[in-house]
Write the structure tokens for this entry.
Amino acid sequence: MSLPDHLASALQDAGVDPRYVEDLARAALEEDLAVGVDVTTEATVAQDQRSTGDLVTRAEGVVAGLAVAEAVFFCTAGGELEVSRAVDDGSRVRRGTTLMTLTGPTRALLLAERTALNLLCRLSGIATITRQWADALNGTGAVVRDTRKTTPLLRELEKYAVRCGGGQNHRMSLSDAALIKDNHIVAAGGITAAFKAVAEAFPDVPVEIEVDSVDGAVEAAEAGADLILLDNFTPPDVAQAVESVAGRAKLEVSGGLTYYAARSFGETGVDYLAVGELTHSAPILDIAFDLRPAG
């Protein structure tokens, strides 16, 4: 059974492929069952019992992934599932906030609970830490962006969560844009040679070049780079690069960035901060599924 139209549309509107979400949900549920059954639920819950439960926050944060969680519950409850959402993805919530209420066969709700929470808590944690970085950069003109340091097979969802938190996405895959890093530069024989090689092979692809010095940034700009990645620069060095490049390319800083220093980098005039921890180190947002007592 495919996802219902309203849910598929909600995912599409969020920039997420509904088929990908459904396949992921079903695979995760199969992993949890391990070709068996939920022995605890089968033993304690009558087959025809129906219940209502609430997804409730246990901490303050930003929500992401409600449609994904709903998709997981739909995969176990099907058309018998009734859903009411109290908030939207991207909302700031306090501890104790009810996010969504679900009604359906009790066995189906309990079977989906852990898988739905694993995804919802993970995505909301990413949205929460991204919002913290976005707030730190507010008013500077700089934007926090993610990287490809994502959980394998969860990239589409994790990058969606970054958007929910007020961040922007870097490339989704290796084919979206060229990022010429230090090893590419060594192999090609220099910054200019590497840029020319990419530009000739893929003339319609945006090109970003990683550099480790202001001189390297100037050479990359003169070569024609669309974006220059300033790797492990200090704020004064970033400010110097901004002045030297003089608008010929967008500038992004990465490497060793901390939330506490975010604003000092943002105030240099750099365009982007590339922050891997948004996806590789974000703590979850604690969310629970509370079944309401019968009656």
Observations:
- Residues 28 and 62 are 24 Å apart (CA to CA).
- Residues 5-129+282-291 form a domain with the Aldehyde Oxidoreductase; domain 3 fold (CATH 3.90.1170.20).
- The radius of gyration is 23 Å.
- The chain has two domains: 5-129+282-291, 135-280.
